[in-house]
Amino acid sequence: MSFNQPKEDENNENRRLYNPYKDLEIQAQKLYQLPTQPEFLFHEESVRQSRSWGENLTYYTGCGYLAGASTGAAKGLVDAIRTSEHGDTMKLRVNRVLNSSGLTGRQWGNRAGVIGLMYAGLESGLVKLRDTDDVINSVVAGLATGALFKAASGPRAAAIAGAAGGLLVGCTVGMKHALKRYIPV
């Protein structure tokens, strides 16, 4: 039964439900309008414009793992569908899809999570070292993360991965600044 419809009691009489806001001069719809700006308990929190190193670590690791796992699961799904044979039963096909998606999703998720962890640590370290938070820290952290992640594969692979990491982070930061400037939020 909704609150807007009249309620019937034992005597089949229609009566209105109790409205606790009827005596107030405030409309009920305005009671639940939430503020659009963030609220802070302490003034120091409102002055700080970036996340702490622990928040960065959690954010980049989690986002990296989620993106890698979902991309890997999609790749595993495509691979499992491609390798299915004509005579396979539905149960066998479903098993192949689940196994392939799970394996590839875990592998890619772990790799991307480690990359996010390394990037967050390097970026936070550079911010602390240089005592400023700017684009240079992000690009250098991306470059160092790519190089460090592929360091075991040799110097050429590390240099290519470092350049790709720096370029990827540079493009991402550039797009973020362009969106902030040209699209008001």
UniProtKB/TrEMBL annotation:
InterPro entries registered for this protein in UniProt: Tim23-like
Topology in the lipid bilayer? Multi-pass membrane protein
Q: What is its main location?
A: membrane
Gene name of this polypeptide? LOC110782620
Which biological processes are named by the entry's GO terms?
A: protein import into mitochondrial matrix
Q: Which UniProt keywords apply?
A: Membrane, Transmembrane, Transmembrane helix
Tagged with keyword ATP-binding: no
* Location of the protein in the cell: Membrane
Q: Give any Gene Ontology cellular component.
A: TIM23 mitochondrial import inner membrane translocase complex
Organism for this UniProt entry: Spinacia oleracea
**GO molecular function, one example?**
protein transmembrane transporter activity
What is the name of the protein in this document? Answer: Mitochondrial import inner membrane translocase subunit TIM23-1
